[in-house]
Each structure stands twice: as structure tokens, then as C-alpha cells.
User: Fold HAD hydrolase, family IA, variant 3 from Gardnerella vaginalis.
Amino acid sequence: MSENILFDNSNCAAIFDFDGTLLDSLNVWDDIDNESFAKRGVAVPEDFANSTATFTPRQVADYVIEHFGFTDSPEDLMKEWQDMAADAYANRLELRKGAKDYVIYLRKSRAKLVLLTSLSKTLCELSLKHTGLREYFDFIIFGEDLEKTGKNRAQTYIDLANKIGVLPNNCTVFEDSDVALSSAKKAGMKICKIFDCVPAKSLKNNAFDGCCTGFSDFSLAPKNLKE
Assistant:
């Protein structure tokens, strides 16, 4: 990254999701889902991950109770998932390739750095400490801080732009969730699609035509956020 030209990204903001975007973590949630459902004799639906990708932990708990007949309280379910995940986030899960170098680059380029995650504060803080990322972010919004609709609406991103004092068209959102990307795009922000273990490829002729780029390796992320 040090060999690349350092652009002036002042008056711009980079808004990062955490799970599955900066952190290579989606498999751990698949494992937790499979174990939790199997304990109750229920199979995990194929579309479960996509259906709940932008939900807060409480929303996921309410969702499985309503749709799959779990008899646990939301609080007990969240504690079960939290206990299963805590060790992974604190000790095992690592950043996506090139992610830390890219965050450091943007910090040096004077961009505002924002973490907007549906992950709980407890798990996110464990992982930020483990990966050494905490010091680079100007703003962090955890799952508990998001409104009920989470990342499912453009207003979430418009409100965030107002909070950090950056115009929406000067914000670039990095996400692996199509729902969140769609919301950010409707808010007038630039978007970058993060793939899970898939080589970088063009996003032309799909729902996100016109997005900055798509990649799984952050060495391919845009250096100039003003373009």
C-alpha cells in the first residue's frame, strides 16, 4: 500500500460494515446458525443468512422465534449466540486480505472513517482489539445503536452522513450485504461490493451497476474516494 499514490481524501468518508466486509467472519455465523438450529431439530433455510444479513441480534432472535417456533426468550437466544461467538471474535477471526492496510491508507489520506455494523458492541469490541483496528475509526455505530430498521432504509445512511458532517455523495460504503448496498445507493452514496472468497469482478449489468468496484481483496479498493 505504501507504494501507491496517497490521494487527498479530506471531506470524504469511508463507511465500513464489519462482519464479512473488513472481518472474514461469515462462516462463523453459518456454524453458529447450524448448531443452534440443529439443537432444536430445525434445518437452517437456504436464504436465512441473506434474510437476516442487516438485522440486529435482537431482530434475529425475534425472527427465528416468530418463523421457526423457537420457544426460548429473545434474551436467552442472544446469550447462547453470544457465548458461541465470543471466543471466535476474541481469538480466531482475522481481517480480510488487505483490509488493515487499506484502513491505514485512508486514515493517512485524511478521510473520515466510520464503522457501521449490525454486530453487537461486545463482539465487535473484542474483534477490534484482536485485529488492532479500533484506533483508526472516527465513528463507530454498533448493532445496539441502529434503529429498528437497521440498514434496510436509505434514511439510516442519510442520518449518518448528517451526523459525521459529510455529504452523501462524498461517502463511500463498503458492504457485503446487497440490502445495505441498495439502501446506501438510494441515499446517494458511492458503494463498493465485498465478495466472500470470490475473485474481484465487474458489477456491470446487475443491480449495482455504477458502483465503484467489487472485490474480496482490499488491495483492489479505490484509493481516491473523490472519483
In short: The chain has a mean pLDDT of 89. Residues 27-92 form one domain.
